[in-house]
Every structure is written in C-alpha cells, then in structure tokens.
From TrEMBL:
Keyword Membrane on entry: yes
Domain of life: Bacteria
Alphabetically ordered keywords of this record: Membrane, Transmembrane, Transmembrane helix
Segments crossing the lipid bilayer: 146-169, 181-199, 205-233
The name this protein goes by in its record: Integral membrane protein
Organism: Streptomyces olindensis
Region (Disordered): 72-91
Length: 253
C-alpha cells in the first residue's frame, strides 16, 4: 500500500512539474520575438551627438571609475554587481549575468567605459578592450529565451504525459514502465537543450545554431523514446513474471 501511495505521489509530482515547466517554456517562447526586436534596435542605434540628459535611443560611451565590484560567489541568488562612478559623481549600480570577462578583473579605482542606452549601462569595456554585457544589455537575450523555451518544453511535455499516463494506467506494470521511459527521455532532451545553449553561448554562435544543433539531438531522443516505449508496452522492460501468481509445488517426502 505504501509503495502504491508513493508511486501515485511521484506521478502527481511529475505531472505538476510538467505543467509548470510547460508554462515557463511558453512564456520564454513568447519573449523570443520581443528580445530579437530589442537587440536589432540596439545594434542599429546611432551614436549620441552629445551627452543625453534623459533616457534616449542613441548610444553614448561614458567614462566610469570602479568603486566596488562584487562577484557574490558564495551567494548564488545574488547577481554579480559593480558600482561605477561617472565624472559627475553620482554612482551607477550595475548588475551582470556572469563574472567574465570584465567584472572578474575589476578593481577599485580602475577606469572602464560604459555603453549607455535608454538610460542604462548595457555594456562595460575595460582598458584592454574586453567587453561584457550587463543584465540590461539586449545582446544574447534571444538565444537565452529560445534555449530556455526548448529546455522547459523538452522537460515539461514528457513529464506531463508520463505523469498522467502513470496515474491513468495504475496497476499495469507495462504502462508504468512506458510512462517512466517517457519521463526520463524528457530529462535527457532537456539536458541536451541546456548543453546546446551552453555551447552556443561559449562559442558565440548565431541564434540559428541552437535549433540546428538541438533538432537532430531531439529527433534521436524521440526515436529512442518511441523504441523503448514500445518495448515497455510489449513487456520487454517490465518484470511480468514477478506479478504472476506462483503455483505451490507439491513437496515430496
């Protein structure tokens, strides 16, 4: 009885996780277009003729002096951040998505150049010419949104299907095995999407590289999922013998 209850709870957990992940995937997918438009707007923005007095769509390079730089290595929920001071003296608080390649080398009183767009520092450049986007920077967001959508849908849909399948087909070892196959293949597909996004970001490949790499991997994963699911339904993965009643054998004197 306890084993059956634990199995149902596990299936419910997979089902709910699938719903949440699918919702996140849909939200991420809907954000891809807006992120692309914002990145195009930034790349086509003209240089400002003079220091903008208010938030503007032109791009301005502002000199800053580093006051503080904090990696937050021991605080995973806190983004890396820095406090930059322009000649006017009013500090700007800037956050980053990661620490490389500029933030990790920042020291107090170091001179850097910040790229200001729509009233925000979207990129920081050090004295050696290395550039790093800030959390406000539009570059790279379309890739992040697309990769997040693929990962969440890849994980969420099989989790939803596998969880619902296990709940609706209780008592059938073959269907339970098939549902397990679907769920764990979804985990593999999600990991493949995450690794694809990592490879694209590390190598600075264009947006189309994400579906170009992940697509063949997804097809292989779906083919494997189909083959193993059919094998489970045929009883090749479930131990049917364990559930069959045993006939008492006569004892010989």
């Amino acid at each position: 009885m306890r084993s059956s209850t634990r199995g149902r709870l596990r299936s419910v957990a997979w089902l709910l996780s699938g719903v949440v992940l699918l919702a996140l995937g849909v939200v991420s997918a809907l954000q891809v277009r807006g992120a692309l438009e914002r990145e195009r707007e930034f790349r086509s923005a003209p240089a400002c003729a003079s220091v903008p007095v208010r938030a503007s769509g032109c791009v301005w390079e502002q000199d800053f002096t580093v006051r503080t730089a904090d990696m937050h290595r021991d605080e995973r929920r806190e983004p890396p951040e820095a406090e930059l001071v322009p000649p006017s003296g009013e500090p700007w608080h800037v956050t980053f998505r990661n620490t490389e390649p500029v933030l990790s080398e920042m020291e107090p009183d170091e001179k850097v150049v910040g790229l200001v767009w729509h009233g925000q520092v979207v990129e920081v450049r050090d004295a050696e010419g290395r550039r790093q986007p800030t959390s406000s920077g539009p570059v790279g967001w379309p890739e992040d949104r697309l990769g997040g959508a693929l990962a969440c849908v890849s994980l969420g849909l099989p989790a939803l299907v596998g969880g619902a399948w296990a709940l609706l087909a209780r008592g059938s070892r073959r269907h339970a095995a098939a549902a397990t196959v679907v769920r764990w293949h979804g985990v593999a597909l999600g990991i493949a999407a995450i690794l694809t996004l990592w490879a694209q970001s590390a190598n600075d490949w264009p947006l189309w590289a994400i579906p170009a790499i992940w697509g063949p991997l997804a097809l292989l994963g779906l083919a494997s999922m189909t083959a193993f699911t059919l094998a489970a339904l045929r009883g090749e993965l479930a131990d049917d013998a364990a559930s069959a009643p045993r006939t008492p054998q006569p004892q010989t004197g």
